[in-house]
Design a protein that fits this description.
The complex is a heterodimer of chains A (236) and B (186). Chain A is mostly helical. Chain A is built from 11 helices and no strands. Chain B has one domain: RNA polymerase sigma factor, region 2, helix turn helix motif (Rna Polymerase Sigma Factor, Chain: A). In chain B, helix 2 (17-39) runs antiparallel to helix 3 and helix 3 packs across helix 4. By secondary structure, chain B is mainly α.
Chain lengths: 236, 186
């Protein structure tokens, strides 16, 4: 076997993925060819070095929250799926005799509940409206802050102090974390994802890369979409 | 292990969200680390790994339950990573130079600095591989998949797996020359 052929098989030989016949041929060759033997030793060394790399491990809380964050992102579908099985369960309940007794009891409870509901309706409605208003105001405020950050990022020079100032502003305002939560929102999701990626790049970029980030901001169209969404929300 | 996956897939296909949760809990770390080893940024790995599970959630009905679950899942995450790296190829060089945080360790500062430098060099070398060669390398070296499993996962032939791995190792050998030479001589 020639060196050229052997070198093509070295990786598979190292991984023990060759047929018995080819394995023997490579083995024989390595005994007599120091050049290929050195190449093989280098491959072994590559594997040793790369597997010695210690990846950055996220904290345990990250894994604890991982599934719940994921479920929130697929939540609308979860509810729909649950709805289907709930209907089957409900139909089976309807067939039972205990259902009649339960219906009578529910009737009494319902009358009581209507009374309580009428009393609490006014207060509850006000609370819901207030909550929606507060949420809407937070989103609007975050959109304005995001717009400001993006405009600042577009105007920034390749300067360490300016970069640090912008980075601190972005992180300490909690904006990045909140934008992440908007990714689940049906009307803001896509924009929030683009915005989050841009923000991550701003946080991680070094001054010499700022021009690339600025190009990315302009080419992604995220700023114009942000302004559009903000305007349409403020008209509402 | 495989039977367990089949049970959860069947339950999930039947509308039981617990089946999905079990699959997420079992595979979340593996999927995250594949994405992290390919893209090297925690936030990106987090987003892509979650995206992979969302794809699983949305397309579970098209998944043939007679097939193994994990090659399908690995294929989803690897494709997401490859697309991300291609889309953001302009930022590949930027990724290499991003702030690297080595886990805190106690010990001699000179040794730690040396380890940090080596870690950075290795990360840079892996980042410099083409997305497809990198995918094969990560699945083989870090996930321990056989060539057959990699070919099923990536939908390519065994010969392609073999040549991509050979290319990946040859490139890494060149990129890590100074450390390799020292190791081989030792």
């Amino acid at each position: 076997m020639k060196c050229k052929e052997v070198k093509k098989l070295l990786s598979a030989y190292l991984d023990d993925e060759l047929s018995m016949n080819k394995r023997q041929l490579v083995e024989e060759h390595l005994k007599v060819c120091s050049d290929c033997a050195l190449e093989f030793a280098s491959f072994q060394s590559v594997d040793r070095l790369t597997t010695s790399l210690i990846p950055e491990k996220p904290p345990e809380e990250y894994w604890e929250e991982y599934s719940s964050r994921l479920l929130r992102r697929v939540a609308p579908k979860v509810e729909r799926k649950a709805g289907f099985s709930l209907r089957d369960w409900w139909l089976s309940i309807l067939m039972r005799t205990e259902f009649r007794v339960a219906t009578a009891a529910a009737g009494v409870v319902l009358i009581l509940l209507i009374g309580v509901y009428r009393l609490g309706l006014k207060h509850g409605r006000e609370e819901i409206l207030l909550k929606a208003k507060v949420e809407d105001e937070t989103i609007m405020r975050d959109m304005v802050s995001s717009e400001v950050i993006l405009i600042k990022a577009l105007n920034i020079r390749e300067n360490v102090d300016e970069m640090n100032f912008l980075r601190n502003e972005l992180v300490s305002s909690g904006l990045l974390n909140r934008v992440t939560t908007y990714k689940d929102s049906p009307d803001l999701g896509e924009r929030a994802r683009s915005l989050e990626m841009i923000f991550i790049k701003i946080v991680n970029a070094e001054p010499s890369h700022m021009k690339l980030v600025q190009k990315e901001i302009l080419s992604s169209g995220v700023l114009s979409r942000l302004i559009e969404t903000k305007d349409s929300k403020s008209r509402r | 292990m495989e039977d367990e996956d089949r049970i959860w897939v069947r339950r999930f296909k039947g509308g039981d969200i617990d089946g999905f949760n079990e699959l997420v809990n079992k595979y979340k770390k593996r999927v995250y680390y594949i994405a992290y080893r390919m893209c090297r940024i925690h936030e990106v790995a987090d987003d892509l790994s979650q995206e992979a599970f969302i794809k699983v959630y949305k397309s579970i009905n098209s998944f043939n339950k007679n097939y193994k679950f994990y090659p399908w899942l690995y294929r989803i995450i690897v494709n997401l990573c490859i697309n991300y790296l291609k889309r953001d190829s302009r930022f590949c060089s930027l990724h290499n130079e991003l702030l690297r945080r080595v886990p805190s360790q106690s010990g001699n500062p000179a040794k730690l600095a040396e380890m940090k430098e080596l870690n950075t060099k290795i990360e840079e070398a892996i980042s410099a591989l083409s997305p497809k060669n990198k995918a094969v390398f990560v699945l083989r070296v870090y996930e321990g998949l056989s060539y057959k499993e990699i070919s099923k996962t990536l939908g390519c032939s065994l010969g392609t797996v073999m040549s991509r791995l050979n290319r990946a190792r040859t490139n890494l050998k060149e990129l890590l020359k100074e450390y390799i030479t020292a190791e081989v001589i030792e």
